[in-house]
Specification:
The chain has 412 residues and is an alpha/beta fold. The chain is built from 14 helices and 12 strands. The longest helix has 25 residues. The protein is globular, with a radius of gyration of 21 Å.
Length: 412
């Protein structure tokens, strides 16, 4: 079964809860993106040759607001996956009640193999080629895997250059010096903390002293490790990224890990902690497992070996449908990706609003507004899932789907 088919099947399953309220024709429209674009970008490389890069753009649904989505640079991609992610993202903005639709952009490239000048050329050519399809109230890009604030800055500069239109709200995730929102860098991580804390509070538990393992903690997810320890008193016992994997059954010093990374020193060679593989990290006996990598890392091959009590999906689609069923049979709760990692797009929305109004909020206000969105959204999903005796994932989809369908229905 393809990834896109899996997404469609999940939506159909959720639709069963609300099918009496909506026409099947509306469901058919939600099951597929509004449009999908394939494009080609020629870039002159440092050695004088020209290399052509292929990209995809999937606009899923804008019934609830402008298309909003991430630009991902990655060597492994298919149109099927881009369409799948665009559907997920629509559900994500809907579950936290943000007035945005969603799309996804993806360029097939390994940015680590490009020089800085080649990466800038690719970023600028990308924006120059697609500027006619973008507008700050219609279609708003943001960073995703392997795209940074620097890439967003290049793209914004190119957009302004080719359109003669000074509209910083056309791109979010920019550097703070050019109209970024305060706290955007840590927003996804903090939003996940709020969702996890609210889930535990609902079952009369606390994050304090809970043991946590975080798989694939790049810069964004290292923020999660720091925040969950400093603000909530949890204990991170295992953490990894693409190059290093460390474990301590008692607790890890996440501030020391952060310092080593900032100094470009090897975390594994620190000597204080045990080495552990990314695969074994998933199987530790802990309270909370946080998969933060790419898709489908928990699947039918390893789901029956998972020992964590709760899984917080900070990556998109880290658990396959087959694994979902296995984990449900083991009474392992999953806080789904469309809710757990919605903090990033929430503060991206704040950034867009601040750009469009030219009024900028302090960090404290941004954090308060993020918390005011994430906690009620989490409780809404939890209480409804309990009422209808279904999973948090299924009800998160139901909540999202209902809001999208209601917007489509009232416009017809």
């Amino acid at each position: 079964m393809s990834l896109f088919q899996s997404v469609q099947d999940q939506i159909k399953e959720s639709f069963e809860f609300i099918k009496n309220d909506f026409d099947d024709n509306l469901l058919a429209r939600v099951l597929r993106p509004d449009r999908v674009l394939e494009f080609y970008i020629p870039v002159k490389m440092d050695d004088g040759t020209t290399q052509t890069f292929i990209g995809y753009r999937s606009q899923h649904n804008n019934a609830r607001g402008p298309y909003k989505g991430g630009i991902r640079f990655h060597p492994n991609v298919s149109k099927d996956e881009v369409m799948s992610l665009s559907v997920w993202m629509s559900l994500k903005t809907s579950v936290v009640w943000i007035p945005l639709g969603w799309w996804k952009w993806w360029i097939i490239v390994d940015p680590k193999k490009l020089s800085k000048s080649e990466l800038e050329k690719l970023s600028r050519w990308f924006m120059a080629k697609l500027a006619p399809f973008i507008w700050n109230l219609v279609d708003v890009p943001a960073p995703d895997v392997n795209t940074t604030w620097q890439i967003m800055a290049w793209m914004l500069d190119e957009y302004i250059r080719v359109t003669w239109n000074q509209t910083p709200g056309v791109i979010t995730g920019k550097p703070l010096s050019i109209w970024w929102s305060q706290w955007r860098e840590k927003a996804t991580s903090l939003g996940g903390c709020f969702a996890l804390d609210e889930y535990l509070k609902n079952s009369w538990q606390s994050l304090k002293d809970k043991t946590i393992a975080i798989q694939w903690a790049g810069n964004v997810w290292l923020n999660f490790a720091t925040l969950v320890v400093q603000l909530f008193g949890a204990k991170v016992v295992a953490i990894s990224d693409s190059k290093w994997w460390v474990y301590d059954k008692n607790w890890l010093d996440v501030l020391a890990i952060e310092k080593l990374k900032l100094e470009n020193k090897s975390v594994q060679d620190y000597g204080k902690w045990e080495k552990i593989s990314n695969e074994d990290l998933l199987l530790l006996s802990i309270d909370i497992l946080v998969p933060s990598a790419l898709e489908q890392v928990i699947n039918e091959k390893n789901a029956d070996k998972i020992l964590a009590k709760v899984i917080l999906e900070m990556a998109n689609w880290p658990v396959t449908p087959e694994a979902d069923k296995i984990l449900k049979s083991k009474n392992i709760s999953i806080i789904p990706d469309v809710l757990a990692n919605a903090g990033g797009v929430t503060v991206s929305y704040f950034e867009q609003v601040q750009n469009n109004t030219n009024y900028y909020r302090p960090e404290s206000e941004v954090n308060e507004k993020l918390e005011a969105i994430m906690r009620p959204a989490t409780l809404d999903v939890i209480h409804s899932a309990e009422k209808y005796k279904t999973t948090l994932r299924n009800w998160a989809y139901v909540v999202s789907l209902r809001r999208i369908l209601e917007a489509m229905k009232i416009k017809n």
